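Possible regression after last week's pipeline update?

I re-ran a chain I had predicted before the update to compare outputs. Posting the input and the new output here so someone can diff against the archived version. Not blocking, just want to make sure nothing changed silently.
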Amino acid sequence: MVIEIFTALVGFLALVYAGIAKFVQGKLVDRSEMESMQAESKRLNAEFQKAQKANDRKRMDKLMQEQMEFLPRMNGVMFKQFRPMIVILVIFAAFMWVVNDIDPYTKDDIRLNLTDDGLGCDRFAGDGTFTGCFILEDGDFGKWTVHGKALEAGTDVADNETFFYYTPTADTDTYKEDGKGEGMQLSTDKPEYSKGDTVTVTAIPASMTKGSEFIIQLAAPRELRVDRVEATVSNGTYFRADLPLAIPLLGIKSIYQPYWWFIFISLIANLGLGFVMGQAKKMRKDDKQAGAKK
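New output (post-update):
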C-alpha cells in the first residue's frame, strides 16, 4: 500500500469517526436540559447579587437554600453529559486499533534484541550498555528511524528514538520522537551508511529508580534493573504527511504518526461539522422567527 493511499485512508476513517462522534453527541447529549440548567444557575447568581447589594438577608438566605438544592440536580445533568464521552472514547479506541493494524509501514520493520552480555556486537558484559547490529542489504534509501525500548521483567520502563541515513539520499528530515520513561540514550555508531555496512545500535539506560504510587507514595523508590532492550528499525519506511501550511503557533508542517494524522483530520472535521451544524441551526431559527412575524 503506497503512502498516498494509506494517508487518504486514514483521513477517510478520521472523517467517518468525526461524523459518528457528532451523531453520538446529538443522540445522547440533551443540550436543552443543559441550557436550562445554565439559565437557572445564571438566574440564581444574578438574584443573589441583587439581594447582596440590597443587603436583603432574608432573600439571600432563601437563594442560598435554592442554590444548595440546585447543585445536586446540576451535578446529575453534568454527569449525564459525560456518558457520551465514554462511548466516543470506545469508538476512538476501535478506530485507533484499525489504523495501527493496517499501517503498512510497520510490516517491514527490523526487530533487534540489544544485549549486555559481551557477545556479538556488545563489547563488555554487564557494563550497562546494550548493543545490537545488522547489515544493510535491502530497504529504501533515505532516513531510517530506530526506536528503542528498555524493559524490566517485560515492563517498558524507558523509550527513545534516533535515526540515520542510508545513502544515496538527499533526505534532510531530522525529526525524531522524544524519549519517555526514566531515560535512555539511544544512538548508532555512524550518522550515515552505505549498502553492505553494518549498523551498530547502542542503548544506555539511565540510572533509574521508581516507586509505587497512586496519588500518594505507596512504596519507596527502588533501582530498576533493565534486563533487555528491544529496538525496532523502520527499514526506511515510516509515516509522514506534509501539510500545505504550518500549523499556527506550533509551526508544525509535517505529521509523523498515523494516529496523529487521524486525530488532526478528525479534529478539523469536528470543527467543520460544528460550524456547519451551528449555521444550519441559526438558519432554522431565523426562518422560524421570520415565519412568526408573518
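Follow-up from reviewer: compared with the archived run. DSSP finds four helices and 13 strands in the chain. Marking as no regression found.
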